[in-house]
Design brief:
single chain, 187 residues, alpha+beta, Jelly Rolls, 2 domains, four-stranded antiparallel sheet, 8 strands, 21% strand
Length: 187
């Protein structure tokens, strides 16, 4: 839990400041990717799913729970929403206005720290787009493999299946070795 992100923490009791709470029910869309961003949300209770989409695919990039914040990127960068947020269970949030977020960012005296925040947001956006791109490639690969399996199971003459198996087995072993080698490099 990230209690240091709690917008209610450190409020001055004498200031007439009101932070509102909202409840989103399981399955409810809280933020839609591409919409205008004018609020961020601090999760008090519940869990949400963060999804990023392109023209064809939608990818779950994370889950967030109590003590975490979402929707802040659009406020800090003054851009449209970069993800869709869906309540995985009934979720209670504290709403943070764009004025509140800007006031917090403006309180940071070190301008290089503010610059770093912007760089990190850009990198996170790029990483999310990369996840969608990799998912798309995987989905295309799976479709191609399914088509090949279908073709192999229905299109090979029964008398030639043994010969086919003998020719394909070494290729599959090579592919398996290549995947093992790639996995070892990635880890």
């Amino acid at each position: 839990m990230h209690t240091e992100l709690d917008p209610r923490k450190g409020l001055q009791p004498k200031l007439p400041r009101v932070l509102s709470r909202e409840v989103f029910y399981k399955g409810q869309t809280i933020i839609r990717q591409g919409s205008e961003g004018y609020r961020a949300f601090y999760i008090e209770k519940g869990r949400v799913e963060v999804r990023v989409r392109d023209e064809e695919h939608s990818v779950k990039v994370s889950e967030l729970g109590p003590g975490e914040i979402f929707g802040e990127m659009a406020l800090i960068e003054h851009m449209d929403r970069t993800a869709t947020i869906i309540a995985l269970e009934d979720t209670t949030v504290t709403v943070i206005s764009n004025q509140e977020m800007e006031a917090k960012i403006n309180m940071i005296e070190d301008k290089s720290a503010v610059g770093l925040i912007h760089v990190l947001i850009e990198r996170l956006c790029a990483a999310n787009r990369g996840q969608v791109h990799h998912y798309r490639n995987l989905a295309e690969f799976q479709d191609r493999m399914a088509g090949m399996i279908e073709k192999a199971s229905t299109g090979i003459d029964e008398r030639k299946r043994g010969q086919f198996r003998e020719e394909v087995t070494p290729l599959l072993e090579q592919l398996d070795a290549l995947l093992d080698a790639y996995t070892k490099v990635k880890n």
